[in-house]
Write a sequence for this structure.
């Protein structure tokens, strides 16, 4: 990689390699789409063990912005919302095979949606799509602590229910349409 452009063009996740801790729910998946390494040490926050993500190992690792796979997930989710499950079930079967998982046995719309969101979370891990999934399907999005569950640091209280990033004060003060 051209080191002069790393800050502008490089994969920014690599900058945060020593602070991106792979959470336990993802570590438990044993899925090749969620590669990580147990470093045997503590993270920047010594309360956490450090598990290094390996999806983006270098500054020049490509970051998927959009893909045919994502389009297929969007189509499957939209068709499922219309009561048509065939596309979602076919995509689930394909992606479970990629992840080395056994066949999916669910048959109800909520089960299918939950599994579709699970496969989507695995395929798009570290790709900044999970918040949108949570906003669209709050009851079907996996690997998100439910509101009220204690944070790993008790002094910070419990997980809340916010699904949006708060607007900065500069936006609220400078936007006449706010």
């Amino acid at each position: 990689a051209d080191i002069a452009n790393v800050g502008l063009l490089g994969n920014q996740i690599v900058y945060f390699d020593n602070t991106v801790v792979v959470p336990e729910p993802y570590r438990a998946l044993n899925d090749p789409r969620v590669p990580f390494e147990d470093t045997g040490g503590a993270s920047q926050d010594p309360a956490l063990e450090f598990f290094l993500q390996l999806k983006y190992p270098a500054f020049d690792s490509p970051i998927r912005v959009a893909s045919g796979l994502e389009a297929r997930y969007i189509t499957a989710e939209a068709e499922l919302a219309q009561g048509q499950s065939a596309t979602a079930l076919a995509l689930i079967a394909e992606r479970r095979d990629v992840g080395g998982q056994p066949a999916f046995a669910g048959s109800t719309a909520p089960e299918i949606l939950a599994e579709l969101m699970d496969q989507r979370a695995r395929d798009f891990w570290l790709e900044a799509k999970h918040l949108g999934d949570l906003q669209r399907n709050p009851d079907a999005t996996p690997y998100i602590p439910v509101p009220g569950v204690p944070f790993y640091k008790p002094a910070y209280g419990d997980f809340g229910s916010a699904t949006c990033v708060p607007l900065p004060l500069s936006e609220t003060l400078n936007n006449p349409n706010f």
